[in-house]
Amino acid sequence: MDQIKIGKFIAGCRKNKKLTQAQLAEKLNITDRAISKWETGNRMPDSSIMLELCNVLGINVNELLSGEIIKMEDYEKKVEENLIELKKQKEEADKRMLKLEFVIGYTSSITFFILILLASYIQMETWIRIILIAFGFITFVIGMHYCLKIEQTAGYYECSKCHNKYVPEYKSVFLAMHMGRTRYMKCPKCGKKSWNKKVIRK
Ligand SMILES: [Zn+2]
């Protein structure tokens, strides 16, 4: 997706509607800095605000994502291109998140381990020992929470029975037995329990 082109397109549509950045920002209930970032191509509008932005500018989401007004005869082709591009971006983002999970998991485990070692082997007052252990434990719990959250939301789990791909609830990920990222969970489609693999592509 060409963010510079989209930015110029947003600026053009805004000027057509005779709105300043500040006026558009006010209509959308956001800061004019956000608008400026879109228009210079530094950022894409959040999906949560896209519809409203399109309404104000008198365009549709597909045109926004293409960065141009689309002629009727090109319409379907453009929709398809944009859907493929969005899918690709989601896959890339999911892959990055899973890498991040790895980093968070290791960092918090190692921190926990080091603090426990320090607390066990170095001479110190008991209350410092307790604080170190508590701090290590909290770091570990928070780290694991983020790891699970990422594992729940990035990509999909594939049922090994019916090959349905789905995003499970946090609770089922939390409670499931697992080997690496493969988890023993109940498939919401066929209802069978099996080892479900993590996959990026739907
Ligand atoms: Zn299934």
How would you characterize this protein structure?
- The protein has 202 residues and is of the alpha+beta class.
- Helices cover 63% and strands 9% of the residues.
- The protein contains 8 helices and 5 strands, in the order αααααααββαβββ.
- The chain has a 5-stranded antiparallel sheet.
- α2 crosses α3 and α6 runs antiparallel to α7.
- The relative contact order is 0.08.
- The model has no long low-confidence stretch (mean pLDDT 92).
- Bound molecules: zinc ion.
- The site of zinc ion has 8 residues, from loops.
Seen as an oligomer or otherwise, the chain set is single chain
Number of strands: 5
Helix content: 55-70%
CA-CA gap between termini: 20 Å
Largest sheet, strands/sense/barrel: 5 strands, antiparallel
Mean pLDDT: 92
Bound molecules: zinc ion
Radius of gyration: 24 Å
Gross morphology: flat
Order of strands side by side in the largest beta sheet?
2-1-5-4-3
Order of helices and strands: HHHHHHHEEHEEE
Approximately how much beta-strand content do the residues carry? 5-15%
* Helix and strand composition category: alpha+beta
Spans where pLDDT lies below 50 across 5 or more residues: none
Q: If helices are DSSP runs of H or I spanning 4 or more residues, what is the number of helices?
A: 8
